[in-house]
């Protein structure tokens, strides 16, 4: 049986993040990818110039079409810009067998452009945090959900991850990519354990889509039947290598994408 994962997220016309990054990641990791588009963005490596939200009725139609036919092994949720979109996705998830859910609470693009309306944050917390098997915020996203300053050290990262769990998240992967120092450290916090995942901090401007890629790599692992800890560890290895190879691509004039197919393309 072919492993199948679904991404519910916005489109990136530049191809580096969003649904495009998710589908590339699924494919690179040997998983068939399907998608539900929640928004269209006019976007490239320099920034976001426009967002067009998909009508909620059509989002629900996509959800019903995909999940009623495909044997989905895992679901990744990305950009959901408005409260109505979030509620529609939550209701759609409840109506179908969707597999483990990885929620990436996308709020800001790599360029700094906002992707989530302020009024949608509380709805995201109430509607999707408790439904997700894993939530993968970066330092700024966690701080925005908690209405605190971003964590500045490992103790604060663990504390903020625990606070997100107290708000309804089952397991939290708090990502340290926006931190400082020679190491990029993420922490996985669950009922069972606190696990650190570390990698060298790589010097590159080409980090567009890192969060999307990491969360979809985790979903790919879950779709193939991996335990959550193993899926997260494998995804960390994948995204680190994809960032390391990013400069080989030379895409655009700003924050270019990571290299999703670093282990498949030659020359």
Encode the helix/strand succession as letters.
Answer: EHEEHEHEHEHHEEEHH
Rg calc? 17 Å
The name CATH uses for the topology is UDP-N-acetylmuramoyl-L-alanine:D-glutamate ligase
| Helix run count | 8
In this structure, how is the largest beta sheet organized? 6 strands, mixed
- Oligomeric state of the chains? single chain
Name the structural class. Answer: alpha/beta
Shape: globular
How many strand elements? Answer: 9
Short description:
The chain is built from eight helices and nine strands. It is α/β, with parallel strands linked by helices.
Q: What report would you give on this structure?
A:
By secondary structure, the protein is an alpha/beta fold. The chain has one domain: Ribokinase (UDP-N-acetylmuramoyl-L-alanine:D-glutamate ligase, 3-Layer(aba) Sandwich), CATH 3.40.1190.20. Helix content is 36%, strand content 21%. It has eight helices and nine strands. It has a six-stranded mixed β-sheet. A three-stranded antiparallel β-sheet has the order 7-8-9, sandwiched between helices. Helix 4 (121-127) links the parallel strand 5 (101-103) and strand 6. The chain is globular.
